[in-house]
Amino acid sequence: MSVCTLWRSSIVKKWLVAITGLVMVGFLLGHMAGNLQMFLGRGPSPEATKINEYAAFLKANPALLWGTRIVLLFSVLLHIVTTISLTRQNRKARPESYALRASVASNLASRTMIFGGLTLLFYIIYHLLHFTLGCVHQELFTYPDVYQTVLSSFQIPLISGVYIVAQIALYFHLVHGISSAGETLGVSHPRYRECLNRIGIATATLICGGFISIPVGVLTGLIS
Ligand code: HEM
Q1: Considering the domain boundaries, does residue 224 fall inside one?
Q2: What is the predicted pLDDT for the residue at 174?
């Protein structure tokens, strides 16, 4: 079977969206756990600060760093391209009368996913320009002292606010995304659907709660 034939299949596309989504969930769990080292505070020097040691460890292991970056970039691009293609394919396949009768709930869910996904795309671009490249808020970028960059950034309520709003968008995207990925990958029995929803809510709460705790920790002075 050729790649073109596979690409025309909506089942194959759904699998691609689900698998690339789960790869990103794996990255988010790791990234969130790494960022929680902000709570371990500042060490006697920037080099002896836990989160800076972690960043330095990643930089000192280019195979790990670039391997993760390449898999992540590939997953993000494939996730976006496949979602756009799947949405267009579904619209074309749907006769006008069906479109009118289509369930309001499922339309709302897919619109929320597209809107949430776009919000996250803008957020990720801003986030990379902010923390990885230091192109926005240049005056706050104190590389390689990641601790200081995160601290001085989140001491500005507007920046913290942007991050918190982005995590809320991420939460809704993850809750729906994780349970749909489970269904696509075969957990479709009604008995397991409720369990899948709970897994989606628990994972999204863990990831987004962990991320949100950092700006909240800075604003409340718990991280200083
Ligand atoms: C409070 C929340 C977050 C904080 C404090 C944070 C912090 C950081 C920092 C400091 C870096 C740069 C690491 C370095 O270059 O040494 C980074 C990179 C990155 N972050 Fe976040 N992050 C947060 C949330 C997120 C979220 C929600 C996403 C995705 C939706 C995300 C995706 C990324 C990506 C893709 C990179 C680039 C990784 C790389 O350079 O290899 N981050 N983050």
Answers
A1: no
A2: 97
Provide the residue range defining the domain that includes 136: 3-219
Q: Is 119 inside any structural domain?
A: yes
Residue with tokens 């299949």: 9
What CATH number does the domain containing 179 carry? Answer: 1.20.1300
Proportion of the chain above pLDDT 70, given as a percent: 94
User: How many domains would you assign to the chain?
Assistant: 1
Among the atoms of ligand 1, which is closest to the Cα of residue 146?
10
pLDDT of 96 above 60: no
Q: Which among 126, 118, 117, 205 has a CA at the least distance from the CA of 158?
A: 126
pLDDT at 99: 53
Domain membership flag for residue 180:
yes
In a domain, 27, yes or no: yes
The residues lining ligand 1, judged by C-beta closer than 6 Å to any ligand atom, are 31, 35, 55, 65, 69, 72, 120, 124, 127-128, 131-132, 146, 150, 163, 170, 211, 214-215
38: its two tokens? 């902000």
What is the C-alpha separation between 74 and 67, in angstroms, rounded?
11
pLDDT at 82 over 80: yes
For a mutational test of ligand 1's pocket, the pick from 53, 61, 73, 127, i.e. the residue with the most ligand atoms closer than 8 A to its C-beta, is: 127
> Considering only CA atoms, which residue is closest to atom 8 of ligand 1?
131
pLDDT of residue 192 exceeding 60, the answer is yes
